[in-house]
């Protein structure tokens, strides 16, 4: 019987401990508690990995970036910069943009005449912003996948 073996109890204790006290707390915090599509979840997890690697492990101070690793240093810095600052700024800009979306009802409520070009111009700009966010995410996600062997200190 497995119940009488030490391994069974140690393994059970470890599993219970990991459930209540996760070993990768930064990763648990990165995963949203609300329902999320897989592509969005993938971006969130990869960004958490890159940010923890740079901030949490202080990779640029603790790692020897000579020879083979030197080719990975700048792309990792670029991904980190994207995930840490630029991505949040663009997401905030898109969120603010959708708050001021021009609508016919809004124009009628405040007494403005309907202008045909407003919505079309706004829509094109909003789509361009979302495309730039998607392109930046793709570029930044390729780096940790390409240099995954260097993501340890």
**What level of helicity do the residues show?**
over 70%
| Count of DSSP strands | 0
Order of helices and strands: HHHHHHH
Please state the average pLDDT score: 81
Which features characterize this protein?
mainly alpha; 73% helix; flat; 153 residues; 7 helices
Question: Secondary-structure map with pairings?
Answer:
Elements: H1 6-20, H2 25-30, H3 38-56, H4 59-62, H5 70-99, H6 104-109, H7 116-146
Helix pairs in contact: 3-5, 3-7, 5-7
Plain-language structure description:
There is one protein chain. With 153 residues, the chain is mainly alpha-helical. It contains 7 helices and no strands. Helix 3 crosses helix 5, helix 3 crosses helix 7 and helix 5 packs antiparallel against helix 7. The longest helix has 31 residues. The radius of gyration is 23 Å and the shape is flat. The model has no long low-confidence stretch (mean pLDDT 81).
Concise structural overview:
By secondary structure, the protein is mainly alpha-helical.
